[in-house]
Write a structure and sequence with these properties.
Chain A: Its main location: membrane. The complex is a heterodimer of chains A (226) and B (291). By secondary structure, chain A is an alpha/beta fold. Chain A has a domain at 1-81 and 190-226: P-loop containing nucleotide triphosphate hydrolases (Rossmann fold), CATH 3.40.50.300. The radius of gyration of chain A is 17 Å and the shape is globular. The longest helix of chain A is centred in the C-terminal third of the chain and has 16 residues, at 171-186. In chain A, strand 4 (57-62) and strand 5 (65-66) form a beta hairpin. Chain A has a six-stranded mixed sheet with strand order 6-7-8-3-9-10, with helices on both faces. Chain A has helices at 42-49, 75-79, 97-106, 112-125, 141-153, 171-186, 198-204; strands at 2-9, 19-26, 31-35, 57-62, 65-66, 82-86, 159-163, 190-194, 207-212, 215-220. Chain B has 291 residues and is of the alpha+beta class. In chain B, helix 1 (2-16) packs across helix 9, helix 2 (18-54) packs across helix 9 (209-246) and helix 9 runs antiparallel to helix 10 (259-288). The chains are: A alpha/beta (226), B alpha+beta (291).
Chain lengths: 226, 291
């Protein structure tokens, strides 16, 4: 599903590479944590999978598509197969939970009728049934992140990328979000999550890839934060 | 749905930043009015040239002492000259008749001139009025020729003035167009900034580039089209107030501007206004949104 083959990325003006000869292979339906200290290169991986930054060397293959050689005009269509969740939620403040999720469908050309059918369904799935018409500022942090997960998942992507999705949440809420991601993973969606929340990694007991200074120092099937 | 979404985004966009939108539309309107005026003058000058140059004559006046022989020689030469289309000989009596007609309102002047004071002349029509110089050089030293006068030289002066007015209008149109372009670029940047969250989400979930750009580009196009409509109104007003009003005394001199001419120039204004705005907006977005 996702292959990084000897990927090296050095940002301009950086003294050392963010990623240094990294190779990882992720199968369909896997749940993988990328862990490591700030600046270790975890987020660069997410950006590469989104075709936002290109590697200097090596190959990135997502969904059978070689992202390295992908032309930028193909990026929009490519991204429709990937859901994405961030630490800062990135919701539109002047739209309700329903409208935020529907927006993601409408801007890729789905009709309002499709939105009316699938949005309540996915909001129910993330546990926000009954709160469809609340605005983000009327929701708690955990609930806002659920809206963001609903938006990422509404298009039934093959891959869900999560960049420190619990970074702004308290431990209990974080666990609830993790249960949600776990449920999404069980539908067959590949989940890649970048985090440095050791509690969560230790509880989930999923594959852990640890990165330090741009190199993989550990890749463990049922790992802990360590 | 998508069309409705895009259109409502355009209107909301123009309204959100209404002072800037108005500034953009006004500059655009002034620029396009200048462009339209310059275009109309171009046609005007062309029409006038056709009208005047068709009737233009070169007159070769003969000396009082011209001999029969000199006159027939000149006549044969002119008849066989490839530059000359038409030759008309005007003898003294005829010249006097024309003179009387021309100055019938000034009987004193007519009375003061005797028929044989007026020179005989050949009136020539040239195949190409611009080859006057060649004709002049060829005949100026011929025996019996007093003076050669070319009407087109007078007209050239008038047309030079008209052409420079036209160039000034065009220059003003270009300067205003630059101001309009900068305003469009600025408006689009402000619009893109105020919608940066939406744009970020759209890019994230894979909205196509045209879908992200269309509302911004159309916003500029709508402003450009409104500007060209205002320019049309300005031209209509100018025709109504200036040409049909205070300048109507010059009607015999200037060829008339018809409503058809103005309607003909409008697509040019609307096209330039719309395309230039769209291009500017699109380029601005390339730099600003990186989509």
């Amino acid at each position: 599903m996702i292959q990084l083959e000897q990927v090296t990325k050095t940002y301009p003006k950086a003294s050392r590479p963010s990623l240094d000869n990294v190779s990882v292979s992720i199968e369909k339906g896997e749940f993988v944590f990328f862990i490591g200290p700030s600046g270790s290169g975890k987020s660069t991986i997410i950006k590469m999978l989104l075709h936002e930054v290109a590697p200097n060397k090596g190959r990135v293959v997502v969904n059978g598509k070689d992202v390295t050689s992908m032309r930028s005009w193909k990026r929009p269509h490519f991204r429709r197969s990937i859901g994405c969740v961030f630490q800062d939620f990135r919701l539109l403040p002047n739209r309700t939970a329903y409208e935020n999720v529907a927006f993601a469908l409408e801007v890729i050309g789905k009709t309002k009728a499709v939105a009316r059918r699938v949005v309540p369904e996915v909001l129910e799935l993330v546990g926000l049934g009954g709160k469809e018409h609340r605005y983000p500022h009327e929701l708690s942090g955990g609930e806002q992140q659920r809206v963001a997960v609903a938006r990422a998942f509404v298009n039934r992507p093959l891959i869900l990328l999560a960049d420190e999705p619990t970074g702004n949440l308290d431990p209990d809420t974080s666990i609830e979000i993790m249960r949600l991601l776990d449920r999404i993973n069980r539908t067959g969606t590949t989940v890649v999550m970048v985090t440095h929340d050791s509690n969560i990694v230790n509880q989930m007991r999923r594959r852990v890839v640890e990165i330090e200074s741009g190199r993989i120092v550990r890749d463990q099937a049922r790992g802990v934060y360590g | 749905m998508r069309v409705k979404y895009v259109l409502s985004e355009v209107l909301v966009g123009l309204w959100r930043n209404v002072t800037m939108s108005i500034a953009m539309i006004i500059t655009m309107a002034v620029s396009l009015t200048m462009l339209g005026a310059s275009g109309l003058m171009y046609r005007q000058v062309d029409d006038m040239k056709d009208l005047y140059y068709k009737n233009i004559e070169v007159s070769i006046f003969l000396t009082q002492e011209v001999t029969e022989q000199e006159r027939t020689d000149l006549q044969t030469k002119l008849d066989s000259d490839p530059l000359v289309k038409d030759v008309l000989y005007v003898n003294k009596d005829e010249a006097y008749k024309r003179f009387k007609e021309m100055y019938q309102d000034a009987p004193d002047l007519v009375n003061a001139v005797k028929p044989d004071q007026l020179p005989e002349a050949f009136r020539l029509k040239l195949n190409n009025p611009e080859q006057y110089k060649d004709v002049y050089d060829q005949y100026k030293d011929t025996a019996g020729v007093e003076e050669i006068i070319d009407q087109s030289r007078l007209l050239d002066k008038i047309f030079n003035i008209l052409t420079s007015i036209q160039n000034i209008a065009l220059a003003a149109a270009i300067v205003m167009a630059i101001a309009a372009l900068l305003l469009v670029a600025n408006t689009i940047q402000v619009a893109a900034y105020s919608k940066r969250r939406e744009v970020a989400v759209m890019k994230l979930v894979g909205a196509s580039n045209w879908f992200i750009q269309a509302p911004f580009v159309l916003e500029a196009v709508v402003a450009g089209l409104i500007g060209s409509l205002l320019g049309l109104v300005a031209l209509v007003a100018a025709k109504y107030l200036l040409f049909d009003g205070s300048l109507s005394a010059l009607q015999g001199l200037l060829s008339p501007i018809s409503w058809g001419d103005i309607l003909f120039i409008f697509p040019l204004m609307a096209g330039v206004g719309g395309l230039v705005s769209a291009g500017t907006a699109w380029i601005t977005l390339r730099f600003y949104l990186r989509v």
